[in-house]
Task: structure prediction
Amino acid sequence: MSKGEETKQKILQQALMLFSVKGYEETSLKDIATSVNIKAPSIYAYFKSKESLFENVIDVVMDEYLFFIRSQADTDVSLPTEKQLYTLMDNLNKYFYKQNLGLFIKRYGLVPPEKFRDYLLHKYNESEREIRKLLYDILESSSKPYKSDLDTVVTSFICVLDGLFTYLVNYSEQEYEQRLKAAWEVYWQGITTS
Amino acid sequence: MSKGEETKQKILQQALMLFSVKGYEETSLKDIATSVNIKAPSIYAYFKSKESLFENVIDVVMDEYLFFIRSQADTDVSLPTEKQLYTLMDNLNKYFYKQNLGLFIKRYGLVPPEKFRDYLLHKYNESEREIRKLLYDILESSSKPYKSDLDTVVTSFICVLDGLFTYLVNYSEQEYEQRLKAAWEVYWQGITTS
DNA sequence: CCTACCGATCGGTAGG
DNA sequence: CCTACCGATCGGTAGG
Result:
């Protein structure tokens, strides 16, 4: 990687961190530059505007997220369905707790700024579709009968996932664990015939 | 109401609207003043700073929300438990779809700005506690047996509620209705013995 | 409730 | 990648 490319990547990483923690308007180009040890105008050697930089960060975050979601397709199909579904839900949430990506997606996916609204929601919907695909794969390869039709089972899963997502950052990982446990217990009882 | 008090209320209302739609940093005092037909410095006749104005808006929003939550305690106890719980979930969400309050709570409750973080989360937790109280009241006065213990049933309800909350503004009310239907079906099946 | 005004900071450009 | 610089806008104050 060339020196210039290296700097560009550093800018993207620091911008991701600052945009996630402080927000778009609250983060100045000077903030970003300082954390990369360059001067603010130098950023324009790599990005044509603050907006453009932000859009690049969106791509980094969402591409990485989509890659992670798709990597979850490798779960062991011999495992019981419950285990597969639970692991998926937990992994998706754990992913958010581990890095700034989760905070970024929460901040800009849930309340997208006007300027980037369409772009963000498009990416956000794409990730939901990918998760739905994973769910259909798991559910269809299972012989278990479900109390509700597949669409309902899947949509409901997404809703619980989004609910847990809400607790990111505001609550400790321990509090999250408790809520996951409760939500999962009811969800699983709700879709299976006992 | 005196002329001055009237203006103060107008400022609070417009500030609520703009802070909800655009965000704290993206809303200037000039924006607020213009929409109230006064000049920006005049705001200082009523509030000592932008931060102070914002805190006042927080109080308006959360007090109104708490009042609404408590008003939900008046549901007809003779109705079946399912109906009572469903109505509560739907009413809480409908409340958000009706006014800017929902957008405000979503924006600042889910990703609170550093400066107001503690204050906002405190108010937010208070509202969750009030909702939990309503749930315990409904569940305890019911003779129905539940598959999980009360804490689990309640926490899970909150999680579904928060999931649906997530769809506010990003999705149409119709899309919300579909997701509510799916989430509710599974939730209800999950807590009751069939 | 207004006019006049302030220092600080913002995103961005020119030119190297 | 930097220095020097720009116009615009910000929250806020003085004094009425």
Summary: The mean pLDDT of chain A is 96. Chain A touches chain B through 47 residues (CB under 8 Å). The domain at 56-191 of chain A is CATH 1.10.357.10 (Tetracycline Repressor; domain 2). The radius of gyration of chain A is 19 Å.
